[in-house]
Amino acid sequence: MYDGAAMVRAADRPSGNGPMTLRDVARRVGIHPATASRALNESTRHLVSAATATRVTEAAREMGYTPNSIARSLKTSRSLTVGVILPDLTNPLFPPMVRGIEDALAPAGFTALIANTDNDQVRARSVVQALRLRQVDGWISAVATLHDHLFTDAGPPLVLLNRQDEEGTPAVVGDDRGGIEQTVDHLVELGHRRIAYAAGPQAISTGSARYAAYVAVMTARGLSLDPELVRFGASFSERQGARALAELLDAGGDFTAVMAGNDLMALGCYETLAERGLRCPEDISVVGFNDMHFADKFAPPLTTVRIPHHEMGLRAAQQLLAQIEGATSGVNPIVLPAQLVVRSSTAAPSRRGGRRH
Amino acid sequence: MYDGAAMVRAADRPSGNGPMTLRDVARRVGIHPATASRALNESTRHLVSAATATRVTEAAREMGYTPNSIARSLKTSRSLTVGVILPDLTNPLFPPMVRGIEDALAPAGFTALIANTDNDQVRARSVVQALRLRQVDGWISAVATLHDHLFTDAGPPLVLLNRQDEEGTPAVVGDDRGGIEQTVDHLVELGHRRIAYAAGPQAISTGSARYAAYVAVMTARGLSLDPELVRFGASFSERQGARALAELLDAGGDFTAVMAGNDLMALGCYETLAERGLRCPEDISVVGFNDMHFADKFAPPLTTVRIPHHEMGLRAAQQLLAQIEGATSGVNPIVLPAQLVVRSSTAAPSRRGGRRH
DNA sequence: TTGAAAGCGCTAACAT
DNA sequence: ATGTTAGCGCTTTCAA
C-alpha cells in the first residue's frame, strides 16, 4: 500500500519545501498520486469515485496546489503552446489578430508564444528555432514571404494567417477579391473611371491577390487597365506607398483615384499628395485596405476595406486546434468577408474631369 | 559501461522514432548521456575533454539534435520564460515595449509570454494564473491598476513597466516630470498662459505622476491653477479625452491650450474640438504624451512627448533577468528621459487672446 | 575526465 | 475504483 496512509505532517508539506506537488495532495487525502491525478483531470475524472474526486479537488484547492505543467508536458509530450510568427507586431494589423488567437486558445488551455520576424529571413529562422526548442504543438504564421519552408519538415501543424501559399496549407484570409470589388464599384459610382493602383509587393499573397482582383474587377467593369495606372511597392509601407504614387503621378496616367495595397501605403499616398500640393479627396481619391486602428483619425479619415482581424485570428487558432486534435483540414482556405468603410478620402472627381499637377 | 558502445543502427535513431534525444547523440559518440549533456552545455563544457566536446557538438549538429527544453526545465525548475502582462496590446504604446523586452530576453535564451488583461481585473487574474501554471521565471507588468497584489505571494520576481507602485517594486518608467516640464515651457514660449489639463486616471501611476507634474510645473512657472482648468478621464482612452475636454470647455476656463494625459486622450480632444467647431491649433493647442505610432499622421500632426518605449522594454527585461540571476535591485525606479516632439497641434494663441465657443 | 544512479512531477499501461 | 510501476529527457550529485 502507498506509504502515505497516515500522514499530515506540519503544514501539509510532507515533502520538501518547494511548491505543492501532486504527491502532497495525494498524501493529504491518503491515496495514491495516480488517483489524485485522475481526480484532478477533467478527462479522467470518471475513472474515480465521486467521493474521492471531491475530496481530492477540495484538498487541492485548500492546499493551493497547482499542477506543474512542465512535468505534465514532459509526460504527455504536449506543451499546450502555439507559436505565432508575425512580421511586425507594431503593425496595427496584428494586435487584433493576436487577441483573436488568444481568445480561441485560452479556453483550450493553450498559450500563444508570439514572435516577431521583423521582416527579416534571418531573424525569422532564429525565432522559429527558438520556438521549436520550446516544443510548440502548432504554428500560426502571418509572415509575408511566399515559398518558405520554415515549418514543413514534418513538424507540428501550421495554419497561415492573412496569407496563403501554393501548396494548400490551411489558411485564413480576408476576402481580397470582394473588398476590391466593393472599392471599385464605390469609386465608379462616385464617377471615377481612371483608377490607379499602388500595389503591394507581389511576393506576398495579399499583395498579389489584391492586384489580381484589381485587374479582374477593372476588366469586368470595362474600365481602362493602362500600364501607367499601376505601380508596385516593394513592401507594405508608407514609404513604398509614397513612392508608388509619385511614380504614378509622374507617369501621367491622368487618374482621379488611387487604390493602395493597404492602409500604410495609402498613408504614403497622402504624403505624396501633400508634397505635390494635391488635395485628397478633391484632386485625387485614395482608398486603403485593412481598416487598421486609427484609419478614421488620419487626415482625411481613410476610406478603406475592413477585414475582420479579430475573427481571422480566432478562426486560425480554432483551425489549428482542430488539427492538433488530429482533424484533417476542411474547407481551405477559410475566406472571411470584407466590407468597404467609406470615410472622407473618397469623393466624386472634380468637375474638370481630371487632376492637374 | 554504458550500453551504447557499439551503435549506429539505421539512421542513427537507435531509440524510438520521435525527435532526437540526448541518448541518441551519446550513443552515436559512444559515451554516456551525462557526458554528452556536459559537452553540450556552455557552463559545463569545461568538465569535459576538448576532444569529446567537439565530437559531441559535431554529432549533435549532424544529427539535428535539439535539446528538449521541457525536460531541462523539469530538472532545473527553470522555464526560461517571462510573463508579460499588458492592459491592451492594441494600444500602440505596447508593441515597441514588447519588442524591447524580446530583444533583451532572446540573447539570454528566455522567451516572453505575452498576456492581455483587457483592463479587466477578472481577466487579469485568469491570465496571471495561466502563466503561473507555466512556471514563468519572472514577471513584467504594465497593467494599470495600482495596489494589486497579483504577484506578490512569494512568486518569482516582478518588474513594473511604465508604472510604479508605492512599495518600491522595481520599475522602469518614462520621465513624466521632465516631459511635462518641456511641454509647459513650450506652450509658455508660444505665449500661452492659461493651460488646461485633461488628466488621465489617477489610479494609474502615469496618470497621477503626470498630473502631479502639471501642478508642480504650473506652480513653479507662476501660472494659474484654477480648478476649472483640470478635468480627469476615467481611462486613457479617446472617449475619456473627448469627455474631459468637453467638460473643460463647458467649465469656461478660457484656456488657449490643453495638455492631455496621453495621445489617445489628445485624439479625443481633437474630436471634441471638431464637434464644437474649434480649430487646432488656431483656437486651442493640444499636446499629447507618448508619441505613439502614427501620432505624426493625425490631423493635425500631434505635438507630444516621446518616451523611449523600446528602451523601456529592454531595460525592464534586463532588470528582470538580473533579479532572476539573484541580483538585488539597484537604483529604483529606472527613469528614462522624455523628449518633447513639436508638430502642428501647437501654435501661438490667437490674437484675440482666447478662444470662443 | 567520465560513468552510474537518481529524480524533477507527472501520467498511462497494467494489474488488482 | 484504485494501486503499482515505469518512464518522458534531461541534469546533477557521487563515485571511480
Describe the structure.
2 copies of one chain form a homodimer. Chain A has 357 residues and is α/β, with parallel strands linked by helices. Chain A contains 11 helices and 12 strands. A 6-stranded parallel β-sheet of chain A has the order 2-1-3-4-5-11, with helices on both faces. In chain A, strands 7-6-8-9 form a 4-stranded parallel β-sheet, sandwiched between helices. Chain A has a two-stranded antiparallel sheet with strand order 10-12. Residues 1-11 and 353-357 of chain A have low confidence and may be disordered.
Strand fraction of chain A = 5-15%
Mean pLDDT of chain A, as a whole number? 90
Largest interface: A-B, 41 and 41 residues
Unreliable spans of chain A: 1-11, 353-357
User: What sort of overall outline of chain A do the alpha carbons produce when their principal axes are compared?
Assistant: elongated
